[in-house]
Amino acid sequence: LLKEIGCADRKWKSSDNGVFLHLLHEWINGLGSFKKLEQCVKSGISVFMYSGERDFMCNWVGVEALAYEIDWDGKNKFKDKKYQVWETKSGEIVADWKM
Known about the structure:
There is one protein chain. With about 100 residues, this protein is mainly alpha-helical. The protein has four helices and two strands. Strands 1-2 form a two-stranded antiparallel ribbon. The longest helix has 12 residues, at about 15-30. The protein is globular.
């Protein structure tokens, strides 16, 4: 999958607990990060939201709900789109996506 999305040469690691602790107040205090994300989208910045189907911290249902709540010009069109299957060049199905 990383090769397919152009990220094969990057080094990945588990979530950083230090970053988590610094951002914990955003989570506890509600929607501060949501409003910042919404401002980015409204200003025309493209946003890629990803979650793995087995990701416990950022489950796909919650990420989808967040994407549907952001107020932006393409919101309704995005909500109405159907998910598509993402296949590797060898034909292996690796994800569902929509854009």
